[in-house]
Amino acid sequence: MLYDAIVIGGGVTGCAIVRELIRYSLRVALLESEVEVGFGTSKANSGIIHGGHHSSPDTLKGKLEWEGNQMWDPLCDELGFGFKRIGELTVALEDDQLPTLEKLQKQGQEKGVTGLEMWDSDRIKTEEPHISSEAIAALHAPTTGVVNPYEACFSLIENAVLNGLDLFTNCPVTGLRETADSTWAIDTPRGEFNTCFVINAAGLYADAIAEFAGVRNFTIKPRKGEEYLLDKRLVGLVKRVIFPCPTPVSKGILVIPTYDGTLMVGPTAEMVDDKTDLTTTQEGGQKVFSSVTRTVPGISPRDCIAEFAGLRAVAEGEDFIIGTTGKKGFINVAGIQSPGLTAAPAIATMVADILREEGLSLDPKDNFIPSVPKPVHFASLSTEEQIKLVEKNPSYGRIICRCELITEGEIIDAIRRGARTLDGIKFRTRAGMGRCQGGFCTGRCMELISQECNLSMTEVTKRGGETWVIREPVH
Length: 475
Description:
This protein has about 475 residues and is α+β, with helices and mostly antiparallel strands. It has three domains: about 1-85 and about 145-220 and about 315-375, 3-Layer(bba) Sandwich (FAD/NAD(P)-binding domain), CATH 3.50.50.60; about 90-140 and about 220-310, D-Amino Acid Oxidase, subunit A, domain 2 (D-Amino Acid Oxidase, Chain A, domain 2), CATH 3.30.9.10; about 380-460, Arc Repressor Mutant, subunit A (Orthogonal Bundle), CATH 1.10.10.1100. It is about 30% helix and about 20% strand. It is built from 13 helices and 22 strands. It has helices at about 10-20, 60-70, 70-80, 100-110, 120-125, 150-160, 205-215, 280-295, 340-355, 385-390, 410-415, 420-430, 440-455, and strands at about 1-10, 30, 50, 85, 90, 115-120, 135-140, 145, 165-170, 175-180, 185-190, 190-200, 220-230, 240-245, 255, 265, 270, 305-315, 320-325, 330-335, 400, 405. The strands form five sheets. Strands 1, 2, 9, 10, 11, 12, 19 and 20 form an eight-stranded mixed sheet that branches. Strands 13, 15, 16, 17 and 18 form a five-stranded antiparallel sheet that branches. It has a four-stranded mixed sheet with strand order 6-7-5-14. Helix 1 runs parallel beside helix 6.
């Protein structure tokens, strides 16, 4: 098959792009090297939809940050993933930080960001009593939201597949070349793919894909961010995302009330050489907790129940690289670091506009289905609703994850929607995300994957590849 467009990379940007393109009468495919979409940078993301004022309006980041921010409400309404606007405070602890707050406020106002307001220490104490008494001022942005980024990826891709997308996971790109008829051939272990347009949304490896195409004029360097998830006892300690005053390379180390309510702290911002280095470190943990306890003293390292690291794809100049190249039909969507999650829906429409300008006919589908069935969240149902559901389907009456009260029915539904790994179940349902971190539910989740996918227990992995949980004995 000759595709109209193939997107390389199944992070939130690639998923948003294919979901936008599949609105039109196009043949579209997505190639992802991991076993599931969203398993790269997107799953190790802070999950913040930025308020729109953090990036300069003179940058592509700044333009797309605010545009993207405004697109998350309708996207959530259609696809049903977890998203809510909880607002943020950028906090000044010293007088010399006040000009930074003023600059951020002015920057946001230039872009049309609504609701930006400077708070004094009394207002901070009233609204967020657990913020440090040393806080002298804060910039409030009500437009900031939180989202489960991996859940957004799954919903975007599920809807795209429903509307005709061809999805190929476990499908790394090993080569790329122009053909005699001015199309592109993409080499993978799963065979050759042919397309008129290639959209390079390969994240950390976007420079390598551009190299295959012969148009590499940038280098992607990884910036590691360590994040730490805290125990549920701290739910409600702060109601908003808490930022320190930012630096030129980082928005700082944050306190984040996640969509599900638990607090997360981080990230660090350390340039590394290895694009596979997802280790957390003692030094990183010390840096995170020493920083966040300055703004929210009630947080302690003893409350940490899980830690992880993500790598941001940083290009020279720190801005996004989106556009055509010297080769017809090859489009870069590279260097998509923070606020890339926020900007993803706007990036998708920008890519569609570029394809239109490059001559691809974008005729809207008459039969486009904008939504997907929302998964059941058993714990949030009323008692009456739970009873009715269990009478209809007894699997919803069997609790698998005690910490998060996740049922067998929810896990089976997640598997039937595409989960093939323990992480796939965890990110779709939260089974394994609680206090015991899967200590009680892992075995049962593995059994359900084995039964539903016709796999042996030794074939079930944590996140694909060689991340086996149990192995056959060696004789």
